[in-house]
Amino acid sequence: MYLVKYTIKRLLMLIPVILGVTLILYFVLELSPSNPALQILGADASAEQIAALEHEMGLDQPIIVQYVRYILGVLRLDFGSSWVSGYDVLDTFMLRLPDTLMLAFTATLWAVALGIPIGIYAAVKQYGVFDYGSMVLTMLLFSMPSFWLAILCQILFCLVLHWLPATGVGSLRHFILPALVLGANTLASMIRMSRTSMLDVLRQDYIRTARAKGASKAAAIVHHAVGNSLVPVITQIGISFAGCIGGAVVTESIFTIPGLGSMLINAVKARDVPVVMGTVILVAIIVGVINLVVDLVCAKVDPRIDLAA
Amino acid sequence: MRIYKPAALLLLAALLFSLPGCASGQEARKGADGGGSSVILATSGEPYRFYALSEEGCAGDDNLVLSNVYDCLTFLEADGSISPGLAERWELSEDGLCYTFHLRQGVKFHNGAEFTARDVKFTFDKGAAGPLGSGLFVNFKSCEIVDDYTVNIYLTAPYAGFLYGVASRLGGICSLDYYNEVGDEGYLEAPIGTGPYRFVEAVGGEKIVLEAFEDYWRGEPAIDTVIIAIVPNVSTQMIGLENGDYDAVRNPPIDACTHLEGREDICWDYADSTGRITLYLATWGGRVGEDINFRRAVQCGINKEEVTAGTSSGFATILDIDMCPMYGGYPTEGIVTVDYDPQQALDYLAASDYSGESFEILVKSGTGEEMAAKIIQSQLIELGINATVTAVDNTTYTQLQYSGNFDAIIREQLSSMVDADGASTYFNTTPGYAYTKNCKYPLADVIYPLFVKGREVQGEERTPYYVEACNLITQEAYLVPLYNGLIAVAYSSQLQGVEAHCLGSYNFYHWSWK
């Protein structure tokens, strides 16, 4: 029962967060110099045509009225339509969400699958060659700009080896390179986090006790250390996955993935307020839900976390 | 555990075996495997609206689709000339107020309906009333149906460039019967025309699919399916082309094209666009450009060759006046030109009241014009002018250019109206006109009437007016024409019939695989 209560409480806490985000964003966008009606109709349109479109779009109303109208629309799941393309914002978002989710999922998956074992092994072999090697790798991955890594990968795997398509979506193969690039940073985080966490656990008394009771080093690590070291890593996985959803702008742009990142950046460039607002709200909800799920999973695997408290 | 290990190995093996040789689908797109042929064109500008008669109109990028889905009465060819389209021939009355168009017979819309004069009247009446009407159907008064295959289009006053408007995106003929059936919304969602390709679908931010129209009046197109892929990143476009993901790239930068020299599998083509890149100086609002000596210093202190070398590797044509040589009515004789002369520029600067104020050049960020602005900035700094460059995004740029809040602005005017009258835009004295509401040149009242007179006559009679207008603009140093815009296309050498078009659109009808 406490789980349900906790979930509802967290979901309710999302409402002021989203209202705050939308309020700031709406007013910042309103401050920027642009006339959407003129932008849509072009300079050749007459003053009457521009005024008529402004009236139709509600732009002749005070800004606070526009904002309240917008929020009331959002409550009815009406996020409006793009000022540039005329497409429905929610429909476009739902159309683009699967590609972004797929990219974020594959990026996180390979980073986790590789990063955790490397981090754990580096901790077990602390100050060894493997440990130093993994540290160099994480530093490289952290410091390489994603656009640079993306272009290098495109040149190597597409133009030189002809193994993979350089752009677009349509099959799993299309996601290999973008996931590799997007997950590079997450991989570095995973290695660092799991190494640090593992080192911390290996120094705990219960590991020493297990060894004293006759458990082999391997058994102590596998049965007692690994599970306990993963709790902070799980939190990091959630944060990284959420980060991949909102932060895939560069990767999506270079690999021409029609996802949320490229949608948002194009909308910001064109000052397309309904698309920017809708995307930010929906991404904020998704990130909030992911964080909630991570907290619930952590509570499940770590008995020390008491959600009821 | 026993099951997982072999399964994982199998998955890995399958993945590894699937990698080599998977990259290029170009062979399949040629239709060699018995399937239909197709091409994939990568473009950064996304076409959104495929019906020009809607209340929102349509923009330049939409031309890419519109020019293939719709036919106009006249066609704008790649070099800017006009050729017959749905009208086999036309005549202009002696007073220049009535065009008579004789229409082709046996032309069909994509839904099988016959094309007649009713559709022409519907398109012109509705187009003229819409947001693009005043700019593209200039001086349109009415359209009269003479018979099923003849129409008269009347003008309120003669307009020499009217045929360019007829050939523009607004002149794409729509079906009256289909409109009556589906309305504006329905037409926007499922547009039909008489063009070589029918619209299939548009997936926002991803692609637009067109399909060959088998009953096209000029014969069925050679390419069955055209996919227009939206690829915002230029380097991705070129890598995709080299990798065989795309068959053609729309308007890549010339620098990217020159890197393709020597490759046998990819070629490229370029043409002068209808756009001119010009530096306009502000002569209002107490700005430094109010001083004619300062303006003249800027005018002869800019080395245009250096600018074109930096922006287009020297491929662009340098302009002497604010018109492209392909424009109808372009004056070839009697023009006063100003050459690059740094000493003369220093003399003008010394004679001016300039005392080191900042001289801000407004430009769109991430464009070739930004590069031009930076080169000009360095040239002006050498003269002792405190030039700065303000590069802003497209939306801010649009807003600022209407506000007149700049010392100088670099504009690229890519226009469907391939006519000398296009140069009148920034001297238009019509009250409330968006471009000149806050940016009025002191002699605009003298210059604009010359443009008006030039558009009211035909042929050689136009020249004296444009010569006078251009010379006045040059003497007053209101602007510095820089260079003619370029339109390029990079494509697989297996494709034929591909050529750069002055408007940046392509006629896929001429494309085919070798």
Question: Care to describe what's here?
Answer:
- The complex is a heterodimer of chains A (309) and B (514).
- Chain A is 78% helix and 0% strand.
- With 309 residues, chain A is an all-alpha fold.
- In chain A, helix 5 packs antiparallel against helix 6 (129-143), helix 5 packs antiparallel against helix 10 (217-246) and helix 12 (260-269) packs antiparallel against helix 13.
- Chain A is flat.
- By secondary structure, chain B is α+β, with helices and mostly antiparallel strands.
- In chain B, helix 10 packs antiparallel against helix 12 (342-351) and helix 15 packs antiparallel against helix 16.
- Chain B has helices spanning 4-18, 26-29, 63-69, 117-129, 133-136, 162-166, 176-189, 234-243, 254-258, 292-301, 304-312, 342-351, 368-383, 394-403, 444-456, 463-476, and strands at residues 38-43, 74-76, 82-84, 87-92, 98-103, 140-147, 150-155, 197-203, 207-212, 225-230, 248-250, 266-281, 358-364, 386-392, 408-413, 479-492, 495-496, 512-513.
- Mean pLDDT of chain B is 90; it is low at 16-23.
- Helices cover 31% and strands 22% of the residues of chain B.
- Classes of the chains: A mainly alpha (309), B alpha+beta (514).
